[in-house]
Design a protein that fits this description.
The chain starts with a helix and ends with a helix. By secondary structure, it is of the alpha+beta class. It folds into 2 domains: 171 residues, 3-Layer(aba) Sandwich (Protein Transport Mog1p, Chain A); 61 residues. The protein has an 8-stranded antiparallel sheet.
Amino acid sequence: MRTLALAAIFAVGVAAPAFAAPWADARLKFETPGSNWTVRQETYQSTSDRSYIEADAPDDDCAFYSTAAQVANATVARSAISEDARFTPQYLQQVAAMFPRVVGPNATVTANTVDTAGAWPIRRISYRSGERVSHVAIQWRPGVQLIAACARYEGAASEPSRYDAIFRSIGHPNDATWAQEATAGAAAQQAQAAENAAQAEANAAAEAENERVREQNADTERQERRERRGGRFN
């Protein structure tokens, strides 16, 4: 079955030499972890705004997508990947459906973590479909999502760490520029937060002073009333 499936893939794909080297197009880059991997850009699923790549080794099967996403800027792309609320069950099922061959049908999420080892955080998802265990990596960039899925053939189980190297190699050709923008954006956010905190502290101090003055004025007014009442009885 696997021989027939791979034969069909080679019929429609564009094969690259089987050696470990960076692979890149205008929307996606990654590096295979060994010389026994074959990489193919699947022209039937790649469009003007989307790249779809398949890579496989004797024991492993991977696929990679680079497609449009509503991510405002580099700062959001870097920080939002750690926000659990963004990764709803509906979104994670949509991701699984992008890789029917690798993830399998009716897959359920078994793990959902964030890998912060690199410059761009990676959302790591593990799925189970029957006996098949697969692992997915999600990264965001401004206007782009980079998603990869890997699994072992024959339904063999695997630990997520098996694909650390290939997932951490995934990126976008514009990453250097976006990294600078993300760093500048984070610095601007920190500066704004510090300014807001200082302003809040100043506002609190001003309110405390206003309260002190109001209390002092109230004390003075009470004293004056007492003195006026006392004067009437003299």
